[in-house]
Design brief:
alpha+beta; Chitinase A, domain 3; 5-stranded antiparallel sheet; two-stranded antiparallel sheet; 15 helices; 9 strands; elongated; disordered N terminus
Length: 453
C-alpha cells in the first residue's frame, strides 16, 4: 500500500491530480511553498526548463524495441468484487441501519457502545470509548466481552468483569482482572441492499439492484481492461529502455525538469491535505524526507532516460504529435479535470511535458502493435502473478543489458504507474485509507481487543 501511494504521488504528470488546476493550487504556488520550506534543491522551476533542443540520438543508442514478448494480464472480476463495489456506492457512509423491532442485543448485531475499562478501580489507558461500533460475534474484543453485551437493552449500562489473557500484548494488563462499564448507545444491523435504496440513491436512473450491478460490472470490466493495457505499455517501455545503451550522460536540464515536476506534484498533494510537504511525506507517504529526495533522484534519472528513448523511437519510426492530437488531448483533460478554458489549461500545465506525454502514448501503442502479446486472465494469487512477472522478464530481447539498466527500468515502471491513476481512483483510495486509519485508531483506543499474533 505504501509503495502504491509513493508511486502515485511521484508521477511526472501533474494532470493526474485535482490540485494542479488553477481552480485549486497552481504549480507556481507549489514551487513557492517548496522554496519556503527549503525543499527545492533546483535553481530552476520545472516548467521553465526547455529540453526540446536535446538530440536523443547523441545520448542513446536504441536496442531491440520491436518484437518484444509481453504478457497482457487482465484481472479476473468476481461476483464478490461487483457486490462489494455496489454496496460501497449505494450504502456509502451508512452501511448500518438501526434495529427497530426489538430492544435487546443479539449475536450478529453491530452495537454502538460506550465503555470504560477499570483496573483496581482506576480507568486504564486506552480502555475508554464514547462511541464504538462493535459487531457481536466478531471476536475482536477479549473473550467474554461480546458475550457480556448480548442481551443488554438499548440505553442499558452494565458492569462486565473480565480477565485479560495471559499473553495479552500490553504487559501491564496481561492476566489482570478488570471491569468494563458498558452502555449500549445503538443497536444496529448491516444495511440491506434493496431495489428501493438503489432507486433512491440514483435519483431513479436505476430501479433495481440487478440493473445497477450490471452497470457496475461493465465499469469494472472496462477499468480492468484499461489497467491491463496500461501495465502492458509500461512493461514494453521498460524493455525498450532496458535494451537501450546510453552513450552519454543524461542532460542536466532534463533531470532538473523531472525533479521539479515531481516535487511540485507531491507538494500539491500536501497542500490538498492541508499539511506541509515534510508532514505529508512522513505521515501520508510513510517515509522520510531523505528517502523522498532519494526517490526523486532515482525516478528523475529513469524518467529522463525514458523520455530520451521515446523521442529516439519516435524519430526512428517517424512518429509525430500532430496539432489535432494535442487539441484532442487538451479537450480530454479539460473535461476530466474541470478546466473551464483552454487558456486556463495551458497556463497551469507544462505544455512541453504534455506533448511528451502524448508522444509517449503513441510510442507505447507502436511497441504494442509490434510486440508478441500473450493474453492472460489472473486471479490475483501470488503464484499467478509470479508467473506473469517471469514471462514478462523473459520478453526482454537484449541479453547484454546491464544490471544497472535493469534496476532503473524497474524504477521507471514504478514512476509511470502513477500516470494510470485517475482522479476517481485516487479518491477511492483516500477513502479506503481513511477507513483503515480510523479502524487502526479504534484498535489503539481499546486494549479490550485481543492481540492476535
Amino acid at each position: 500500500m505504501k509503495r502504491l501511494l509513493i508511486l502515485s504521488l511521484l508521477g511526472v504528470m501533474l494532470l493526474s491530480m485535482p490540485g494542479c488546476s488553477s481552480q485549486n493550487t497552481g504549480s507556481d504556488q507549489a514551487a513557492k511553498s517548496t522554496e519556503t520550506e527549503g525543499e527545492n534543491k533546483s535553481d530552476e522551476k520545472g516548467d521553465n526548463i526547455d529540453t526540446s533542443d536535446i538530440v536523443p540520438e547523441e545520448i542513446v543508442e536504441l536496442g531491440e524495441y520491436k518484437g518484444l514478448k509481453v504478457t497482457r494480464v487482465v484481472q479476473k472480476l468476481s461476483d464478490e468484487d461487483v457486490e462489494a463495489q455496489v454496496k460501497d456506492e449505494i450504502l456509502g457512509q451508512n452501511p448500518y441501519e438501526e434495529v427497530t423491532d426489538r430492544k435487546d442485543v443479539q449475536k450478529g448485531d453491530i452495537v454502538n457502545i460506550a465503555f470504560v475499562g477499570l483496573l483496581n478501580g482506576e480507568a486504564f489507558e486506552g480502555g475508554t470509548a464514547d462511541s464504538y461500533d462493535l459487531e457481536i460475534g466478531s471476536n475482536t474484543f477479549i473473550p467474554g466481552f461480546e458475550d457480556g453485551v448480548i442481551g443488554m437493552k438499548l440505553g442499558e449500562s452494565k458492569d462486565i468483569p473480565l480477565t485479560f489473557p495471559e499473553d495479552y500484548g500490553a504487559a501491564e494488563l496481561a492476566g489482570k482482572d478488570v471491569i468494563f462499564q458498558v452502555t449500549v448507545n445503538k443497536i444496529q444491523k448491516k444495511a440491506e441492499l434493496t431495489d428501493e435504496l438503489v432507486k433512491k440513491n440514483t435519483n431513479g436512473e436505476f430501479s433495481t439492484v440487478a440493473d445497477y450491478s450490471k452497470k457496475v460490472r461493465e465499469e469494472l470490466e472496462k477499468s480492468n481492461e484499461e489497467y491491463a493495457d496500461s501495465s502492458m505499455y509500461m512493461d514494453l517501455m521498460d524493455m525498450a529502455v532496458k535494451n537501450a545503451k546510453f552513450i552519454s550522460d543524461v542532460p542536466s536540464s532534463l533531470l532538473n525538469k523531472k525533479k521539479e515536476t515531481m516535487r511540485n506534484n507531491a507538494l500539491s498533494y500536501a497542500e490538498a491535505y492541508g499539511v506541509t510537504l515534510d508532514e505529508f511525506v512522513t505521515t501520508t507517504m510513510g517515509t522520510t524526507m531523505e528517502d523522498f529526495e532519494s526517490n526523486i533522484e532515482d525516478y528523475s534519472l529513469q524518467g529522463s532516460k525514458e523520455v530520451l528513448v521515446v523521442r529516439a523511437i519516435a524519430n526512428a519510426e517517424d512518429l509525430n504529435v500532430t496539432d489535432e492530437e494535442i487539441e484532442e488531448g487538451i479537450n480530454t483533460y479539460m473535461t476530466s479535470y474541470g478546466y473551464k478554458t483552454k487558456e486556463e489549461f495551458t497556463e497551469s500545465v507544462d505544455m512541453e511535458e504534455f506533448k511528451d506525454y502524448i508522444l509517449e502514448s503513441k510510442v507505447q501503442k507502436f511497441l504494442a502493435d509490434n510486440a508478441e502479446i500473450t493474453e492472460k486472465v489472473a486471479d490475483g494469487s501470488e503464484s499467478d502473478m509470479a508467473a506473469v512477472a517471469e514471462s514478462t522478464e523473459e520478453g526482454s530481447t537484449d541479453p547484454k543489458s546491464e544490471t544497472e539498466d535493469s534496476k532503473e527500468a524497474e524504477n521507471s515502471k514504478e514512476e509511470d504507474s502513477s500516470k494510470e491513476v485517475e482522479n476517481n481512483k485516487e479518491e477511492d483510495k483516500t477513502k479506503e485509507a481513511d477507513k483503515t486509519k480510523e479502524a487502526e485508531s479504534s484498535k489503539e483506543e481499546s486494549p479490550a481487543k485481543e492481540v492476535k499474533e
